[in-house]
Amino acid sequence: MRDPAYDILFEPVRIGPLTARNRFFQVPHCNGMGYRDPAACAEMRAVKAQGGWAVVCTEEAEIHYTSEVTPYIEARIWDDSDIPALALMAERVHEFGALAGIELAYNGLDGSNLHSRVVPQAPSPLPVISGSTHPVQARAMTKRDIANLRRWHRQAVDRSLRAGFDLVYVYSGHSLGAAHHFLSRRYNHRSDEYGGSLTNRMRLLRELLEDAVEEVAGRAAVACRVTVDETMYRDGIDRAEIEAVIGELGEIPDLWDFVPGTWEDDSVTSRFSAEAHEEQWVRGLKALTSKPVVGVGRFTSPDTMVRMIRQGILDFIGAARPSIADPYLPRKIEEGRLGDIRECIGCNICVTGDYTMSPIRCTQNPSMGEEWRRGWHPERYRPRHADERVLVVGAGPAGLEAAVALGKRGYEVVLAERSRTLGGRVAAEARLPGLAEWIRVVDYRLGQLSQLDNVEHYLESDITAEEALAYGFAHVAVTTGSVWRRDGVARWHTRAGAMPIGATPVLTPDDILAGSRPAGVRVAVYDDDHYYMGGVLAELLRSEGYEVVLVTPEPLVSAWTVNTMEQHRIQARLMEAGVDLFTSTAVSAVLDDGLGTECAFTGREGRVEAETALLVTSRLPVDGLCAELLARRDGWADRGLRSVRAVGDALAPGTIAAAVWDGRRCAEELEAPTDDSDSTPYRREVTAPTP
Questions:
Q1: Which of 6, 406, 523, 576 is the most exposed place for a label (fewest CB within 10 A)?
Q2: Distance CA 59, CA 41 (A)
Q3: Is residue 542 classed exposed, middle or buried when 0-12, 13-18 and 19+ CB atoms within 10 A define those classes?
Q4: pTM for the predicted model, two decimal places
Q5: Over the stretch 637-669, which tens digit does the pLDDT of each residue have?
């Protein structure tokens, strides 16, 4: 079943007193659920253990109320009352033969303490460095504070063992923990035995590691996650320093987890990095310790994984995002089903769960975050409720997902697409700069459809309402997508006609994707969408030689991509390419010879010279077929039709992830859609009042 070339990936590996069953290691990753949704968290991790991951870890777990990261929702192990929620995850992971790991974190300079209201503590007195610029400063830790931290950390280790965890992390990575801040010259300005020389700056890390090893006393393994290079910062941790640190501390923990820079450096989108991009920082470090090493790199190719092991770069194939996209990735490699792997596309929509404090989601895997809430599984589907035929009209991301899921449930499905290709917006957008890996959304689903004898697809089939009624389908899912508006309606202008349109030619993203190009040389891109499209089209046109101006009402370009951790890279790339940026500026009108503008704050009027305007504003659902079928509801019974629904962008334009999710939802709820339900159609974890 398994290709012998991949045997090395399934060798057992010792981690101190433990043995991992293979080399697949789900490293700690956030999920937007944390302490609020422990059952959902536990089930999400359990599915990964089912899928063959040998080690499955939590997200970071705050160890004490004096260092918490509100509004972000992570795990908590402040006191014994937190043990049951964490124990649930450890128990579920153990049920499927995996080791359970917990990442203990004292965030220090990264925690604003908005919940506890306690002044944060750090090596030196500095403003906090958390995701938002909170007006909070940390105080410098005294020797007593450091002693307290060591005691609290030991208590958290003890609670971790009582919760059933096999592997306990000491966290010194991503600029998210106190050990990192003490180690870094950027944040540590002390002159006592905890500051100055590298030996002094690594003292806290050494003490935390030694304390953890002593506390576990052979009952569990100790891991250390450490930043190997603060890639973006002056006076930070560099390669020479980290080599010295590992030279000094390399034999204390049972496992090393190497990460570069901040989380933004570690989880770079595919638009700005390739698979295994972290190799440049990690290569060679394994030789400095006899202990096993784990690292990540958005690994999806088993050949790359094997190379990492054979070349002595890593002992474990670490993954966060690939384990989210496909929790069954190890099992599929083991069973020789490489074509069934949902390859991560590196879009970082999963990261947005943490940034928006909402349950994790995934473009490739719509069941992510829904395992407990809705009972969805990435590989298992409920059998059909009846022998019925389903028509899916439109083969974009929603239509493809609906057809696959319905087919796996056992329904007879006809997928009709009006164009000559399957894939819809994904197939088009994957041709844009940096988005090539997004085509995996289409490729995976086409591969699944090829294995389903009960699903047929037809190209160049522009289905009418009468045809949909004529063929005896019991259900029709209209997944016909959306179109970009030409009238400027979005967030700034909310009604048609609010933005006058003069003689300057107007294009939309649909025109560019269809091959049209601006008239003249100078084009102004107006981005009132704020996700990736405006920035990527500006980059495309600039690369083709156009003079490009990007205008947006937001203070940042592609502002929402702060949540995918790529906004700073998008803005830098556009600036380096020579795109002129007009931020905090709205387009008030398309004139006869350019654009009229207004300041987003003062309303002060201005002008932008342009020969073409490219409007990236909002979209309209293509829902005419659905509307016509609903209007003919009185005739459904005679034709055997039971339900009609718009799905994905045809219902309400959104992200590709949202379209895929709605396609899965359509298949799951075919018999009983929940849109009109009087009660919540999924399970919630309701907080019980504490007396």
A1: 576
A2: 10
A3: buried
A4: 0.96
A5: 999 999 999 999 999 999 999 999 999 999 999
